[in-house]
Amino acid sequence: MTQIAMTHLLILSILVPIVGSLIISRLDKHVNIREAVTLITAVLLLLINIDIYLSLELNHTEDVANSRFTFAEPIEGLAVAFSATAFGSLFAIIASSLWVATSIYAIGYMRGHHEKHQTRFYVLFAIAIAGVMAVAYSDNLFTLFLFYEILTVSTYPLVTHSGTREARKGGRTYILILMGSSILFFLPAMIITWFVSGTLSFQEGGILANNLDAIWAAPLLLLFLFGISKAGLMPLHKWLPSAMVAPTPVSALLHAVAVVKAGVFSVMKIVVFIFGTDFISETGANHWLIWLPLITIVLASFIALRKDNLKERLAYSTVSQLSYIILGALLANQAGILGGSMHIAMHAFAKISLFFAAGAILVATHKKYVSQLSGLGRTMPFTFTVFTIGTLSIIGLPFFGGMWSKWYLLSGSLSFSGPEFTYWAILTGLAISSILNTYYLLSIPMTAFFNKPSQPEQGEEGHAEATGISEAPVACLIGMAIPTVITLYLFFDPQVFFRLASTLTTL
User: Where's the NADH:quinone oxidoreductase/Mrp antiporter transmembrane domain (predicted)?
Assistant: First the structure.
């Protein structure tokens, strides 16, 4: 494939969801056609990203690997530009494949839950996916920052979709934390990087090693970590559980398809292509910064343990699991980078299965608390089987995709070259978190399958008969099945994501 053809694919990856959103916006009175256009757009985008991946795999020539499209250059040397890279392809494939699953699921959920403003939902979802593609294929830090902000703005109306007081309150927390942290931390960090290095281009080995005094490496990296609050580091994590007032497909967008993954993807790119892992290790910047994700991993797990609201428990689980990825980046060794990068994929497919299951429970039974789930496994066996598979993958057990990312993260932790106290703290923290993960997640399907059904409260609609099956709409079940099957498949054949992630360890 020529460089021109690759450039066309890059343009299409961003343009297709935008064009799709415009078409969808005109189909408010044609519901079936609207949803068909959504699915067609999602599938087309996935095929484009697969084509980009195959081109990178089959053509290792420099003109393909470094294909670059410049949209604008407002200041000399500071361009809005995109390029195809293996790591960007990994993120784009994850997001576009899950958009297909989420679109199918959303058809059943939005109809079954009688959500209002469904056309607006599909339009904004497509625009958000376009922002994700721009982040994935960003050629420099300026482009990444620009579309990182666009992603925040485009997802705000989705968070406040229901229009209730609770939704508006959650939306305010969402926008204030994400935009505030970007302005206070991310933007100054980017300006400092530009000032000291004269460029914001992503480069192999980083751009700061010969330009930044070693003593300033940790403070600058700290600005980036807090500035990219989509990655969910404490104490800037509150936006994530606050946004759980949104419809379940939006929760899936936030936790698996787009927002949080854009955060950890950005952190990984900055660690590898702006700082460089060698520079971080040599300066010791990670020796104390690594405590931030470690504390978040453990504290978020304890908080999740206490949450009875199912979506809130899953939200704090996400906060914890995101910090596994940041931990992998800050280990600054090959296994850590590989494990963190693979966990972007493995967590995405497993966690979206859990949120889909939570939404299916809400649609079918109107229940949203863990304490209400006793016996529901007998009337919703498919839903709770999906939940079990997603849970076991996130825990990192064999026969599920999450095992491989946890394997490399543990290997990276064992190879950590920092202070001995920090080394043992990392291993202890991971062990504690794994135990807590097992309890607060696995207890949910265990309760559903093995506890006796709870009696309906006075005035509450009864669920199905004890011997009957009452699952969510078929579209929800199909949407749930897709990431669940992929989660199982990735244990036996993780090579696609392994190859894409391993490119970061060879730089």
Answer: 138-421
3-state DSSP of 174-200: HHHHHHHHHHHHHHHHHHHHHHHHCCC
pTM for the model: 0.90
SS3 71: strand
Question: Which of 8-46 are b and which e, b meaning 16 or more Cβ less than 10 Å from the residue's Cβ?
Answer: bbbebbbebbeebbebbbebeeeeeebbebbbebbebbb
Residue 464 · residue 379 · CB < 8 Å: yes
* CA 82/CA 63 separation, integer angstroms: 14
> 361 is written with which tokens?
């429970």
Indicate the DSSP class of residue 137.
T
Residue 61 exposed, middle or buried by CB count within 10 Å (0-12, 13-18, 19+): exposed
Cβ neighbors of 493 (< 8 A, separation 6 or more) are: none
Give the start-to-end residue ranges of the domains of the chain. Answer: 3-457+466-506
Q: Which two tokens stand for residue 479?
A: 């949407």
pLDDT in tens, 162-179: 777 877 888 888 889 999
> ∠174-175-179 over CA atoms, to 5°?
125
Q: How many helices (H) and strands (E) are present in the chain, helices listed first?
A: 23, 2
In angstroms, the CA 190 to CA 223 distance is 9
